[in-house]
Design goal:
The structure is a single chain. 35% of the residues lie in helices and 19% in strands. The chain contains ten helices and nine strands. Strands 4-3-2-5-6-9-7 form a seven-stranded mixed sheet. Strands 1-8 form a two-stranded antiparallel sheet. The protein is elongated and about 65 Å long. The termini are far apart.
Length: 256
Amino acid sequence: MVRPKKHLGQHFLIDKNIARKITQCLNENYPTVCELGPGTGVLTGFLLERPHVSNLTLIEIDSESVEYLQANFSDPRLHILERDFLKMSMAEVSDQPFALIGNFPYNISSQIFFKVLENRNRVPEVVGMIQKEVAERIAAGPGNKTYGILSVLLQAWFDIEYCFTVPEHVFNPPPKVKSAVIKLQRNKVQQLGCEEPLFFKVVKTAFGQRRKTLRNALKPLTGTITEQHFLLEKRAEQLSVADFVSLTRFVQNLEH
């Protein structure tokens, strides 16, 4: 059967050594694995070789790719769903926690991570190949110019590991940017110690005007702040996750 065409910003990985290396980043202890954007199944084959995997669900939005996968893979553990990952319920994959892996479409990779964040107790581990620039942003720490909203929100609930860089020539067609594999593992945080919806608002508002001190950047959320707090004289990129939690508690107290 003819290989499907690329879809939604997808560049098919054709280097099997890289594919094997990506699947080796995934921990061995997940019986249920979900592969997002399998394309022609270059990761799928290696995932099916893992004896502990009892349920492998493929999420693919492109009907040509789905037909190709159905024609080339036959395994009782394999389930192929033609779905839009961003619109589907995680319960369609499993009612148990599962690991997510894939060569994520670059144009929706940030949205994928926000979806993971919403389902962080259902998806405790993610291994994704994404644009190198986005991977660096997610893994960046305070004081780094690439440190931003996605960095803080993901690092609040996940340990982040930048695994390795992937060159352009291992894809068909080659992308115009370098890629990277990143790994997220759910940390032990269950409660942040502040109002969670407000934490999201504070982080997003703070980085909305990242060049300003937080006293000024937070005005759209808080109005003029006359109270003193040492964090207000800093800029968003200087704050750790713990600092943002402290700042959110401070904003909470302003409202009461």
